[in-house]
Design brief:
The protein is an alpha+beta fold. The chain is 43% helix and 15% strand. Strands 19-26-25-21-22-23-24-20 form an eight-stranded mixed beta sheet, with helices on one face. Strands 1-2-3-6-4-5 form a six-stranded antiparallel beta sheet, sandwiched between helices. The chain has a six-stranded antiparallel beta sheet with strand order 10-9-8-7-13-14. Helix 14 crosses helix 15.
Length: 904
């Protein structure tokens, strides 16, 4: 090792061997004579940074507590002879409970003082870490924003103990003793922007392509997937972008108080702007080229930007290979050519629980649903022949699609959907032209098969209409029973076999709740379609959009009631000043604990929060995505809305009673022009729609609660997999296969036999690759090339969509990307602009002046709830979130389906 690269310090301890190198300070030794750092002494991470420092690259000042000091610590404390034989948990405890001997501690604190005693990041540096053969990235601990001698010494022990963490042990070869570990103490960079840079695209074979991902704040937010980041692909010859995705960035990871890192909001003006300027991108790429040239191979680089200065925090060889070519067809298996190239696919409003990109866990659970549940849902709506499960759904770029062709073919057995056009037209977006479309499955066989199917549907539907209210009561009772039962079970105390039995119970409950929910959904859809058709047929131009203006009092919808109940919770908090102070002033993640520890807060929690959570707590965004926490798991959103509702001084009853300026009376007058028989028939259909919609929303809570039950088991499995070393963090549960979780619980096999580490890493890479790609179209026919660009947003001040809730309003727009973090920003009367909504968004509708979404239909959540709150709404605009900015003055015409930007 070059003495110019590392400055070594002899130990003061009398037991230290002569010449021991216990503390190494990274020194600048620019020039070709700088030797490679000693990895056995510094560990992989620190050795790399020492080499980069010696090469004159911008690395924050740092020193390294070497492996020899760690070995000396073990020898001086008597742990050396026994720690490697300990159980990993006992080894970690032994280090945590054993103080660093004073001579060694003095060496560490002296080096810290020589550094200037700044706030520091304390990072583990294992011997094999960041090598070309093995990348231990993230397997050992890092402690950020450490200040003071005592905190530093504790952080060092934390890093040492992580050598025996389950995730680190699983990364080493089975049966090998743990090697030694060094610790890097590096001046903390107060990063304004951080990110990663790959000198070659790790997932694409395209040459001369460097990849940059950048986020506001510390890079830990990006690594953990908790923040949104900008994406840039640059040509390494010109250092100019060839592709970029500037995302809406709401949160960042940053120091909150000394020694604590957390999430805070990004300033409003910075949310839509690129994290890096063109000049900063060029400077970053120039640095990356120097690193690549220095090492002679492609590099994965972590970097930060602070006060205009770029810093390199880490570099390791890229050890991954490009992902395989992506599928062009959503089918699970190859189909006959006519079907493979002719099927119509759509991801518009698929129950509002599949919308958006899903994690591998979410996708694998969707496949479980497709195989074991979806066909029974079809039977529940009166389909006699439910066909082959392979045809129901498909998957593309991490998105779930409904096979509209096959679904409309099967629904051809039911009288209301005998004409496939009624169903097909609802799921087609502007990307598809139906003029030349022909269903490759044809029409359902005629003759005796049609007669059997018609008889089956008539009998089934008649029974359903008689029993539907009573059946809904049974679903509610079952939901509450299972909810209360689950709240009384400590899953961590169950054996693996008992946990398997519990999961199978919940899967059976999920089946029954979903099958029970589906008839209400389909019948509401059918009644609305029939209502729309008859209004147009019988009333002509006077019936245009009449179905959205007819009064259907559904203020008792479970979804709408949740807003009323949340408002009631807010009023209860407002009447308790101490409770409201805790909710207003505590960080979101600490409010629940603070309330439970406070005398007044505990009373408030028991009397108001617990009943609310029992009724509504299993809601979340994109509920089929099992990685999303429910309100009961993370009540942050509830507290945000309590803050919002408590400040407004409005009455929820006043909101529910607000009118549309006579629109309902006009609709009633139009209906009175019909002959009595037709008017009576239309009124009955309207009543059926209202009835089925109300039952649908009530039953939907049973369905989403069953998902929460399953999620609880999955996260208990994740906890056990971390203990066994199969997972490194709980977030990695997102990259597991649902069938593997069931196999693990049923088989009793060791975790590492069921969950292959390489497969988990590869699944994560493919998922990250999907995130880079343009969103696939809402609907398409046949196959889709992922390399094709999505249709760009058209220029001009107007957007055209579907007028979902009538009325005209002008107001200031607010883009909502992160519901939890932005709920308290939303001001009464503002225009809510977002990609799509589901039931969890309902409380915002109560104070919105209007609603605009990229995705939606007449029966999507945003449409139904907008109508019930009498809020003008335009859905399915495709590009509203790209064209409209927070603060823009916009006008919504909910009758014409137009959104106009009046003032940018």
């Amino acid at each position: 090792m070059s003495p110019r690269t590392i400055a070594s310090t002899k130990a003061a301890s009398t037991t230290a061997p002569t010449g021991a190198r216990l503390i190494a300070t990274l020194k600048d030794a620019s020039g070709p004579e700088a030797a490679a750092a000693d990895t056995a002494l510094l560990g992989g991470k620190a050795a790399r940074l020492a080499e980069m420092t010696a090469a004159g690259l911008p690395v924050p000042p740092a020193f390294c507590i070497t492996t020899e000091l760690f070995d000396q610590y073990l020898a001086d404390t008597g742990l050396a002879g026994k720690i490697h034989a300990m159980d990993p948990a006992d080894a970690r405890s032994a280090i945590a409970d054993t103080a660093i001997p004073k001579p060694l501690a003095d060496l560490i604190t002296a080096a810290y003082a020589q550094l200037g005693s700044p706030r520091v990041a304390v990072r583990s540096s294992a011997c094999k870490e960041d090598s070309a053969i093995q990348s231990f990235a993230g397997q050992h601990d890092t402690v950020l924003d450490v200040a003071g001698d005592e905190a530093l010494l504790e952080a060092v022990k934390t890093c040492w103990a992580s050598l025996w963490s389950p995730r680190a042990a699983s990364y080493r070869a089975a049966g090998r003793d743990a090697e030694s570990i060094a610790v890097l103490v590096q001046e903390m960079v107060r990063a304004e922007v951080s990110g990663v840079l790959f000198t070659a695209d790790p997932v694409s074979p395209q040459p001369h392509r460097m990849i940059v991902e950048a986020c506001h704040g510390l890079g830990e937010g990006l690594v953990s997937g908790r923040v949104s980041s900008d994406f840039f692909a640059l040509d390494d010859r010109t250092m100019e972008p060839v592709d970029e995705r500037i995302r809406y960035k709401v949160t960042k990871c940053a120091p909150i108080e000394p020694g604590r890192i957390g999430m805070i909001k990004v300033d409003g003006a910075a949310r839509t702007a690129p994290c890096l300027t063109r000049a900063q991108l060029r400077d970053l790429c120039s640095l990356a080229l120097r690193v690549r040239s220095h090492y002679g191979d492609e590099q994965d680089i972590e970097w930060s930007l602070s006060d205009g200065q770029l810093y390199l925090l880490q570099a390791r060889p890229i050890t991954t290979k490009p992902v395989a070519a992506l599928a062009r067809s959503p089918f699970l298996h190859r189909q006959p050519d006519a079907i493979q190239h002719g099927a119509l696919w759509s991801r518009m409003d698929i129950g509002e629980i599949f919308v958006g990109q899903m994690t591998p866990l979410g996708l694998s659970f969707a496949r479980y649903h497709q195989k074991y549940v979806h066909g029974h849902c079809a039977a529940a709506v009166g389909v006699r022949d439910t066909g082959d499960y392979v045809g129901y759904m498909g998957y593309l770029n991490g998105h779930v699609y409904l096979n509209v062709s096959y679904t409309s073919y099967l629904l051809g057995q039911c009288l209301p959907t005998r004409d496939q056009r009624h169903f097909t037209a609802r799921f087609v977006s502007e990307e598809v032209d139906l003029a030349n479309y022909r269903n490759p499955y044809g029409t359902f066989p005629g003759g005796i098969e049609d007669a059997k199917s018609t008889a089956f549907w008539i009998k089934h539907t008649a029974t359903e209409l008689v029993r539907m209210k009573q059946r809904c009561k049974q679903l509610v009772a079952s939901r509450l029973f299972e909810f209360d039962r689950a709240r009384g079970i400590d899953l961590s105390r169950l054996t693996r076999l008992e946990l398997h039995t519990e999961l199978e119970r919940y899967l059976e409950h999920y089946h029954d709740m979903h099958v029970g929910y589906m008839p209400y959904y389909i019948n509401a859809f059918g009644a609305y379609g029939l209502m729309t058709e008859l209004c147009a047929k019988w009333l002509g131009s006077a019936g245009a959009n009449l179905q959205n203006r007819v009064k259907t009092d559904m203020s008792n919808l479970r979804t709408v009631a949740s807003a009323r109940e949340m408002w009631t919770v807010a009023q209860a908090a407002k009447q308790r000043p101490r409770v409201m102070k805790i909710i207003r002033e505590s960080p979101l993640e600490h409010i629940e604990a603070a309330l439970r520890e406070d005398k007044d807060g505990a009373v408030f929690w028991d009397r108001h929060m617990e009943p609310f959570l029992r009724a509504n707590g299993t809601r979340s965004q994109q509920e089929m995505e099992l990685t999303h926490p429910r309100w009961i798991d993370d009540p942050s959103y509830i507290f945000q809305m309590v803050r919002r509702y408590a400040e407004d001084g409005m009455s929820i009853d006043d909101i529910l009673k607000r009118n549309r300026g006579g629109g309902e009376e006009d609709a009633a007058a139009v209906l009175r022009t019909l002959p009595r028989v037709k008017r009576t028939m239309l009124e009955k259909i309207i009543a059926l729609y209202a009835n089925c919609s109300e039952l649908r929303e009530t039953a939907r809570m049973s369905m989403v609660t069953s998902l929460w039950l399953i999620r609880n088991v999955i996260y208990e499995v994740a906890r056990r997999l971390i203990e066994e070393g199969a997972l490194y963090t709980v977030e990695e549960v997102a990259f597991l296969e649902f069938d593997d979780i069931r196999t693990y619980l049923a088989s009793g096999a060791p975790a590492r036999e069921v969950f292959d580490r390489a497969a988990i890493d590869e699944t994560r890479r493919v998922y990250e690759h999907y995130k880079r790609l343009p969103e696939p179209p809402l609907s398409f026919i046949g196959e889709y090339d992922p390399a094709e660009q999505a249709r760009p947003a058209a220029d001009g001040p107007q957007l055209i969509g579907l007028g979902a809730s009538p009325g005209r309003v002008t107001g200031r727009a607010r883009i909502i990307e992160d519901l939890v973090w932005q709920a308290d920003e939303f001001q009464p009367g503002e225009i809510l602009v977002t990609r799509y909504t589901d039931a969890s968004w309902t409380p915002l509708f109560a104070i919105a002046g209007g609603v605009v979404t990229d995705i939606g239909s007449m029966l999507s959540h945003s449409s139904i709830v907008s109508r019930e709150f009498n809020v003008p709404s335009v859905v399915n605009t495709k590009h509203a979130t790209q064209r409209i900015n927070t603060g823009d003055l916009v006008t919504i015409d909910g009758d014409a389906g137009l959104v106009e930007i009046i003032e940018a």
